[in-house]
Amino acid sequence: MRIVIAEDDPLLREGLALLLRAEALDVVATTADPDSFLQAVDIHRPDTAIVDVRMPPTHTDEGIRAAVEARRRQPGLAVLVLSAYVEQAFATDLLAHGSARLGYMLKERVGRVQEFLSALHRVADGGTAIDPEVVAQLLTRTRPDNRLERLSPRERDVLALMAEGLGNAAIAERLFVTDGAVHKHIRNIFAKLDLAPTDRTDRRVAAVLHYLESGGQHKA
């Protein structure tokens, strides 16, 4: 796995690089600002990028914008975004174009090495890794939610593959059904999870986040 790190805190930046290299991962570049990060992506063509949300010069949303731009320049680039605290608007912006090969974690999780590495590998393998605190705020659920139990076994299959980042055609191929059948299943999933077309969060992303919040339960 070839990795570029974009983090303006030198201690965290070098600490991440040391940790990943100790795991035999190939850190091809470490950068401290959005411009040098995008240059490193263009030069090294990494498989995965680890990006801080807030970076110079204004320390607002430069990291998010750089991550979106990097994925535009290199489709398929896996990105794990790190944030000091939950920033709901930024998470929603990043997820707006799909959740495949994408992660959003709080920096405090980095100290939990196995949890951090697991998230990194999941994102690199094409999945999604969203911090539970981010999930909670995106879904704004305060009571136990058993809506997944409303789904049929086939609908759970479809949702599980959505969580892996597969599109409709790939899901149809995996399940040996038609594109039309997948579209119908997804429409039913949205209805059973109470995801109305007017929700601020993209319904496909919200469905995946709900699945992840539940722990990826997949009961027949």
From TrEMBL:
Alphabetical list of SMART domains matching this protein: HTH_LUXR, REC
Q: Name one GO biological process term.
A: regulation of DNA-templated transcription
PTM annotation (4-aspartylphosphate): residues: 52
Q: What InterPro entries does the annotation carry?
A: CheY-like_superfamily, NreC/VraR/RcsB-like_REC, Sig_transdc_resp-reg_C-effctor, Sig_transdc_resp-reg_receiver, Tscrpt_reg_LuxR_C, WalR-like
Which keywords does UniProt give here? DNA-binding, Phosphoprotein, Transcription, Transcription regulation
Q: Where is the HTH luxR-type domain?
A: 144-215
Q: Name one GO molecular function term.
A: DNA binding
Pfam family, any one: GerE
Q: Where is the Response regulatory domain?
A: 2-122
Q: Which domain of life is it from?
A: Bacteria
Protein's name according to its UniProt entry: Response regulator transcription factor
